[in-house]
Structures are given as C-alpha cells and as structure tokens.
Design brief:
The chain contains 3 helices and 2 strands. The chain is mainly alpha-helical and 154 residues long. It has a domain of 102 residues. The chain has a two-stranded antiparallel sheet with strand order 1-2.
Length: 154
C-alpha cells in the first residue's frame, strides 16, 4: 500500500494526522537508483520505504565501521540525517505556504480592484439619483404652478 493511501486510511479511521503529514504538505523525495529518478515519498509502497530505511541504516553502519566510529557517533549521524530530512520538509512546507500567500495576495488585490469599480458605479448611480430628485422637485414646482393657474382661472 502506498504511503498516501495509508495516511488516508489513518485519517478515515479517526487519526488526527500531524500537520506535516497533511495531503498538501510535501513529504520529500527519494532517489531511485534502479529507476534513475527522484520519487515522491507519498507514491512509495510502505515496504519500499521500510527497505529504504533499513538500507540507509546498514549503509551508515558499514561506512562507520570502515572509519572506526563508535555507536554513539553513528546515532549522532542518524539523528543529523533525520534533522536534515525534517529541515527539508519544513523548507518545502514554507515554500508551499509562500506560494499560497502569493495566491491569496493576488486574489485580495483583485477583490480590491473590483470593490473600487463597484464604488465608482455606486457614485455614478448616486449622481443619477440626485439628478432625478432635482428633476422631480422641478416637476413638482411646475405642477404646483399649473394647479394654481387652473385654480385661479376657475
């Protein structure tokens, strides 16, 4: 089962996923030597991920045995690798958030422009209403004068 499907199953089962595991957050990439390309971790099968982790640990231990490093140093190096992976994740998340902020800013600027256009239209309508009101006053005055003339003539 792919990592993305496992996360969906966990979420459907009521598990609250950590923010860095959410669907919109990148989990990172893994370079596949066999396929000669970078693969999205979400697209990897769980068994493949476990093998990757085991291989990394074995490779690290062999490298350290060749250099004569002790187990504490190995643990420190593994912790460092984990921290680097988390840092990469944070950077990817920040880049995604920055893109989202840019999109939101663009939408807000469009809304402001539309509001300005609406404000201009409202002002135009207000002037037209004022003009109609003036015409009504003039018409009322004229009707009043006509009524007085008709009343005087009778």
């Amino acid at each position: 089962m792919k990592i993305k499907n496992i996360l969906k199953v966990l979420e459907a089962d009521g598990c609250v996923l950590p923010r860095d595991m959410a669907e919109d957050c990148p989990l990172g990439k893994h370079y596949s030597v066999n396929q000669d390309k970078w693969l999205d971790i979400r697209e990897l099968d769980i068994f493949h991920v476990i093998r990757i982790l085991k291989k990394r640990e074995t490779t690290m231990k062999k490298q350290n045995e060749n250099t004569g490093l002790d187990s504490q140093h190995i643990d420190d190096q593994l912790s460092f690798i984990n921290l680097n992976a988390k840092l990469d994740l944070i950077i990817q998340t920040l880049e995604a958030l920055e893109s989202s902020v840019d999109d939101t800013r663009y939408e807000a600027e469009n809304c402001v422009a539309e509001m300005s256009e609406c404000s201009n239209e409202i002002s135009s309508v207000s002037y037209q209403v004022a003009d109609v009101e003036n015409q009504l006053v003039t018409l009322e005055t004229s009707v009043s004068e006509i009524l007085q003339t008709v009343s005087s003539a009778s």
